[in-house]
Amino acid sequence: MSSFWSFYIAALVVLNIAGCVWLLWYTAHRRANKVNQAETTGHVWDGNLTELNKPLPRWWINMFYLTIFFTIAYLVIYPGFGAFSGTKGWSSIAQLQDEEAKMQAIWNERYARFEGQPIDALAKDPEAVQVGQNIFANNCAACHGSLAQGANGYPNLTDNDWLWGGTPDRMLETILNGRIGAMPAWGPALAEGNQLPAVVSYVQSLSGGEKSELSARGETTFKTLCIACHGVDGTGNTMLGAPNLTDHIWLHGSDTATITRIIGEGKTNQMPAHGPLLGETRARLAGAYVWSLRQEP
User: 51, 86, 93, 155: which one has the fewest Cβ atoms less than 10 Å from its Cβ?
Assistant: First the structure.
């Protein structure tokens, strides 16, 4: 806090306390024996109902004085008087940090027995899975859903389709470091000869769509431009995060318009790195929960 604001706040505090003291003194010195019992404030209701102008009772005034003394004592002990931190040295930030440290110590003790264990081993431990479910709910469910079944653009974690590989080590790597998937825009390259619809038709045929003369024409283009990432047979490449186009699973949708837009305009997706947020042990526990949801092939 700057010197100006410290002085400004301190001045306001002093003026308010002084104003309260003066108001009490002014009211208290008009004792009952010095005031005409018939004196009124001049307010009249319903023709004959008046408000008498009598001083406050002594006990009430004393309570106000005690409140002022309490205020002064509080400002001496605790922060509140400008930049003065109080004689106790307490602050809300310090209290928060202390409480966080205590909570972290409790969690560290709880996580200690899970540290370094493989994800697939943790997935067999009911307590580890329960802890992992809580971690998932707090950090992952916003994108992947409370049941981990994903949404349009967010992978379903309960199936066996893994863009970057579904082994425990690859899963941990994904959680800790995140992933960035980039599908380049092929619209300009496919504009000549109107090749885009043909490629779309061929891609759909790889996953059970109807094969036609159009898809056959698209196969030639696909095997010229797309196999570097998706492979000759369209089964993808987990090292690049290139999806398998033959398994009937579509992250962004399987309709013609969506596939046309993605091939033509490209697509970028990002899984944020959770290593700095969770740490390795908590990441392993979240991975164990996801691993426990896997469907057996």
Answer: 93
What is the reported pTM?
0.70
Do 54 and 114 belong together in one domain?
A: no
Binding residues for heme c: 140, 143-144, 183, 226, 229-230, 271
Residue 49 pairs in a beta bridge with: 45
Same domain, 151 and 284: yes
Indicate the annotated binding residues: 140, 143-144, 183, 226, 229-230, 271
Residues 11 and 144 in one domain: no
Under 8 Å between Cβ of 176 and 286: no
Interval 263-272: pLDDT, tens: 999 999 999 9
Domain boundary among 60, 91, 122: 91
How many angstroms separate the CA atoms of 90 and 227, rounded? Answer: 65
* Domain limits for position 87: 3-91
Q: Report pLDDT digits (tens) over 49-75.
A: 887 777 778 888 899 999 999 999 999
| Per-position b or e across 255-294, b if 16+ CB within 10 A of its CB | eeeebbbbbbeebebebebbbeebeebbbbbbbbbbbbbb
Question: At residue 224, does pLDDT exceed 60?
Answer: yes
- Return the CATH number at 114: 1.10.760.10
Q: Are 256 and 176 in contact (CB under 8 A)?
A: no
Alpha-carbon 261 to chain mean position: 31
Does residue 79 share a domain with residue 62?
A: yes
Q: How many domains does the chain have?
A: 3
Instruction: Check pLDDT > 60 for residue 33.
Output: no
CA distance 214 to 211: 8
186 neighbors 192 (Cβ within 8 angstroms): no
Same domain for 281 and 151:
yes
